[in-house]
Amino acid sequence: MRIILLGPPGAGKGTQSARIVERFGIPQLSTGDMLRAAVAAGTPVGLEAKAIMESGGLVPDAVVVGIVADRIEEADARNGFILDGFPRTVAQAAALDRMLEKKNLALDTVVEFAVDEDALIGRIAKRASETAARGEPVRKDDTPEVFKTRFEAYRELTAPLSAYYASLGMLETLDGMKPVDEVTGDLMATLERHVETTAS
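The structure corresponding to this sequence follows.
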């Protein structure tokens, strides 16, 4: 089961990823974690990424795809994986497809959590005010201003991925504004359907 989760900040990808990990026993792969692990392990791709990061540059797509390629060779990813936070652009998605094809692998599905931007901003503002009311520090990401900026970046760079995967007939869109457990129910039903298709 090889899955990509799409959705803007605050759409619940992290929560749902944890539940997929529990249900299907496949790892959630975060590019940030993989990048740090590759740098720490001193792999050829990790060393290349380290040199770029130290010079203040952005790690190019080819290097990130190389790190993903190495990571999915590990034993725990043999039965599949969840990609969250990657690909971020259509160019990365195309590069990922080419890399998987070389390994005779393919994605099973791409699940997008559709959310209402205004409702999400309201949710974030409420969480921030409740945190402040308890006298706890508010996370920088939890201010409506920062959230709006992150949402705009998502809309500009990552939202076109929906059209890309829809054109390949791979996109499943779920209502991310439902209560968390209902979203999980919809998600598991969608994934189980793909497991049955693969098995048959």
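The chain has a mean pLDDT of 88.
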